[in-house]
Amino acid sequence: MIDEIQYKGKITGVEIDAETITLANKYFGLDKIENLQIVIADAEKFVAETKETYDLIILDIFEDNIMPDFLFENAFISNVLKVLNTNGFVIFNTIVSDNSAQIRNEKFVKLIVSKNIKLQRIPNLEGDNELLILNQLIVK
After folding, report:
1. pLDDT for the residue numbered 116
2. Which of 92, 118, 131, 132 is the most exposed place for a label (fewest CB within 10 A)?
3. What are the phi and psi torsion angles at 65 (to 5°)?
4. pLDDT band at 1; cut points 50, 70, 90
5. Neighbours of 80 (CB within 10 A)
6. Are 2 and 30 in contact (CB under 8 A)?
7. Residue among 140, 47, 132 at smallest CA distance from 85
8. Average pLDDT, integer, range 116-138
9. Among 68, 50, 65, which residue's Cα sits nearest to residue 14?
10. 5-38 pLDDT tens trace
């Protein structure tokens, strides 16, 4: 994002595995990005406890090809929306590799719609990925 659109604002990354950050620093130079802060934490706990708010939240959480169930639960997405600024965006990268994942995404979409959040879907991205783009246009 920094290279592609010359983004200069503050970026906070949350990663549960410190070794992943060590490797990212070594191979991608993350530790050289001045406006990037990496927090070693569980994403579910982080969004529940942070006092910061954000204009853009990118959810890209996988364990191999498996997405943790908490990502699709009301409590988690409510916490994500709580720390999203009005007119902010959530980009949620999901994997839809089978019928149960498709059903999971459909249920999640219904949950988002029930919260009056604008939603755009981009299916079949790089194979099994579906991007869900949420735009919080409502007043908090």
Report:
1. 87
2. 118
3. -110, 15
4. low
5. 21
6. no
7. 140
8. 88
9. 50
10. 676 778 899 999 999 999 999 999 999 988 889 9
